[in-house]
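INTERNAL AUDIT FORM
Audit reference: QA-55
Scope: verify that the stored structure record matches its stored sequence.
Auditor: D.O.
Record contents follow.
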Amino acid sequence: MVVHPAQRSLRRDGSLLIELLVAMAILSGILLPIAYSVASERRFARAAYQRAVAMEIVDGEMEALAAGGWRAFTNGVTGYAIDARAATNLPPGRFILTMTTEKVRLEWHPNVKQHGGAVVREMGRR
């Protein structure tokens, strides 16, 4: 059987096209999960950083409150103003001070989920 040269060229082109499609499928099957993993790790790292910043601020403010600063506040729940420069690295959120007869509680709550979560510190009144 004699194969015409044009048919041989068509077969070669078809096999190259199939090889190209298989290579693209393998490449996308590997690169898409890697790209998603990198993006996910980036979000986690940002949330961990923001949580660490919030913890540092809350811990520092609790030290000031523990040193007697709590006496300037009355019992109840109030917003707590801070002047830490590091707060510019936090997402929008709020600091809340809760005073009872036995405890002083300072919290930071982000307005958006997946930004480090709430940070709470509590101490007994002395």
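Auditor finding: record pair retrieved intact. Strands lie at 76-79, 93-99, 103-110, 119-124.
Action required: none
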